[in-house]
Amino acid sequence: MTQPQPARPFACGTQNLTKVYGSADRQVVAVDDVSVSIGQGSFTAIMGPSGSGKSTLMHCMAGLDKPTAGSVFIGDDNLAFLPEKAVTRIRRDKIGFVFQSFNLLPTLTAEQNILLPLELAGAKVDRQFLAQIVDSLGLGDRLTHRPSQLSGGQQQRVAIARAMVTRPEVIFADEPTGALDLKTGTDLLEYLRRCSTQHGQTIIMVTHDARAASYADHALMLLDGRIVADILHPTVESVSAFLQQAVA
Length: 248
Fold this sequence. Notes:
The chain is an alpha/beta fold. The chain is built from eight helices and ten strands. It has helices spanning 54-61, 84-94, 110-121, 127-136, 152-164, 182-199, 210-213, 236-247; strands at 10-21, 28-39, 43-47, 69-74, 77-78, 95-99, 170-174, 202-206, 218-223, 226-232. Strand 4 and strand 5 (77-78) form a beta hairpin. It is globular. It starts with 9 loop residues before the first strand and ends with a helix. Mean pLDDT is 91; it is low at 1-6.
């Protein structure tokens, strides 16, 4: 008989999280009373039909948006009850971001873009750790290039290196393969998977792509702002079947 896996230490999560936009008769409940716990070193996909609230949930969990009600935790810190300055510090020190549009500064080299979070924080650069990240992403010969001189896949790898250089507790990735071709997207997903399984990095990825979700440990399925399923070891087939049923 298969033994149950031990619970992972808590990395982040929400309790009774609600996010409402608008007021009175124009209210839209984007996230509706969501409670979820994310274990350290896990790779979680957040999925759902368009308008299901998946991006809003991620933005609240990452401290980019303030919840209307409920709690948001990064480790022991409850972002919902902290002043904005403290939330900004947690975003800087404990959270990494990877976005579909890369968000690289065009006037900076790849290396300067990677090191920007450390520069803004006034933190010292660990050159050995930087070299490890750069080598693992195959960027060693691209550090002096500006974004316009890099392919889309190379720009996304620079964005991942920038997210990792501060050694964040959690990395949030918003549609990270959306602007990439199939091979480049696959390479990126395999890298994120290795970061989780080999290096214990906690990764939360919003995606609409069932294939991307299949690289995660589990997929949280949202519908009308609520988590309606948690698919363990998701496959393309299991995720696609759920999405088809959700929009039927």
